[in-house]
Specification:
Organism: Mediterraneibacter butyricigenes
Radius of gyration: 20 Å
CATH architecture of the largest domain: Alpha-Beta Complex
Strand content: 15-25%
InterPro entries: MobA-like_NTP_Trfase (IPR025877), Nucleotide-diphossugar_trans (IPR029044), WH-like_DNA-bd_sf (IPR036388), WH_DNA-bd_sf (IPR036390)
Domain MobA-like NTP transferase: 23-161
Protein name: MobA-like NTP transferase domain-containing protein
Oligomer: single chain
GO molecular function, one term: nucleotidyltransferase activity
Distance between the termini: 28 Å
Largest sheet: 8 strands, mixed
CATH class of the largest domain: Alpha Beta
CATH superfamily of the largest domain: Spore Coat Polysaccharide Biosynthesis Protein SpsA, Chain A
Number of strands: 14
Order of helices and strands: EEEHEHEHEHEEEHHEHHEEHHHEEH
Length: 311
C-alpha cells in the first residue's frame, strides 16, 4: 500500500553539532522527538521514519509503542545530516507519494501547518514565517532519485537547488517553523500554544479474542515483513527482538487459525519470510478498518469538541 505522505525525522547527530537540540531534550513533559511524532500523527501521517544515530537505543525506547520505523545511521559521527536524509529517502522510495522532512531540532510547528503544506501541488514546498523559511519541507518522492544521486557539498539545500525546479513557499502564521534552535527559551514560549494544538483523538485499535492478538504494532510488523521479506529486518526497523516478533506472529496465527507468514529456505543468503495471501488480505482489511475508524473518530471528536476545531 502506497501512502499519500510519510514523515522523515532526522535525529542522528550528537551534541557536538552546532545548533543541535538532542532528540530526548524535553520541551514541556515530552521529548522533542515525541512532540514531532505526535504532530505528524495529528496531521494524519501514519508512516513515520526516524533516522537515529547518537543515543539510538534511548530514542527507540522513548518512541516505543508509537508505531514509527527506525533506521540507524551507524556512521553518524563521520557523516553529515544529508547522509541521514539520503538514507531515509532511499528507504521510503515506493512507499509514499510525498515526504515531510524535518530535522529533530525544529519541533514546534503545528499539524495544521503540515496539512497545509501537503495540500500544495508543487513538488517542493517550504514554509515561511514573516519572510523567514523553515521546516518541515515537503518533497514529491519523484525527486528522490535525483536527490540521492547528488554528490556535491551544501547538503539538501544545494541538492534541491540543483533540481532547477520552482519551489513554492507557503507563508504561515506559525512561528514554530523557524524557531532558533539555540534559544531553547523561545521553544518554551511556544509551549502552551503548541500543547493546545496537540489536542486530538488518539486511538489504539486492537482485535481481541480471549485476549488481544492484533494491534498497530502487529500491523507494522506484517507491513515490514511484506517489504523486507525478513523477520529479522522487520525487527531492526521496529527496534524489537526477534523472539518478540515470533511471539506476535505465532499468537496471531493461533487466533486466526491459519498461517500469516511462510518461510522459504534460501542459499548462501539464507531463507526469506513472506506474507501468505491470507496474511496479506487480513492486513489489508485491518488497515482499511483502522483508517475508517480513525476518520470517523476525528470527525466525531471535532463535531463534539468544536472548541478544538481548526487545529
Amino acid at each position: 500500500m502506497v501512502e499519500n505522505a510519510a514523515g522523515l525525522i532526522v535525529a542522528a547527530g550528537d551534541e557536538r553539532e552546532r545548533e543541535m537540540i538532542m532528540p530526548l531534550t524535553k520541551i514541556g513533559s515530552i521529548s522533542v522527538i515525541k512532540r514531532i511524532v505526535l504532530t505528524f500523527q495529528q496531521a494524519n501521517i501514519s508512516l513515520i521514519l526516524v533516522v537515529t544515530g547518537y543515543q539510538a537505543l534511548e530514542v527507540e525506547r522513548d518512541l516505543a509503542g508509537y508505531g514509527v520505523i527506525f533506521l540507524r545511521n551507524e556512521n553518524y559521527e563521520s557523516t553529515d545530516k544529508f547522509q541521514s536524509v539520503k538514507m531515509g529517502l532511499e528507504y521510503l522510495q515506493g512507499t509514499c507519494k510525498k515526504v515531510v522532512y524535518t530535522p529533530v531540532n525544529v519541533p514546534m510547528y503545528t499539524a495544521e501547518t503540515v496539512r497545509n503544506l501537503l495540500s500544495m501541488e508543487q513538488k517542493i514546498v517550504i514554509p515561511s514565517y514573516r519572510d523567514k523559511v523553515g521546516h518541515p519541507i515537503v518533497l514529491d518522492m519523484e525527486l528522490a532519485p535525483e536527490i540521492l544521486s547528488y554528490q556535491g557539498e551544501g547538503g539538501l539545500n544545494d541538492a534541491i537547488r540543483g533540481l532547477r525546479l520552482k519551489k513554492d513557499y507557503l507563508e504561515t502564521e506559525d512561528p514554530g517553523i523557524a524557531i532558533n534552535p539555540e534559544r531553547i527559551e523561545k521553544l518554551d514560549s511556544l509551549l502552551e500554544t503548541h500543547n493546545q494544538n496537540l489536542i486530538h483523538p488518539f486511538l489504539r485499535i486492537s482485535i481481541e479474542k480471549e485476549s488481544l492478538f492484533f494491534d498497530a504494532r502487529a500491523s507494522l510488523l506484517l507491513t515490514l515483513i511484506n517489504e523486507t521479506h525478513s523477520v529479522k529486518g522487520a525487527c531492526r526497523y521496529m527496534a524489537i527482538s526477534n523472539g518478540k516478533a515470533w511471539t506476535i506472529l505465532n499468537d496471531l496465527e493461533k487466533n486466526l487459525g491459519y498461517a500469516v507468514v511462510e518461510r522459504k529456505q534460501g542459499g548462501k543468503q539464507g531463507g526469506k519470510t513472506y506474507l501468505t495471501e491470507e496474511g496479506k488480505l487480513f492486513l489489508e482489511k485491518y488497515r482499511k478498518f483502522e483508517e475508517q475508524v480513525k476518520q470517523y473518530a476525528r470527525k466525531s471528536f471535532f463535531e463534539i469538541f468544536d472548541e478544538y476545531k481548526g487545529q
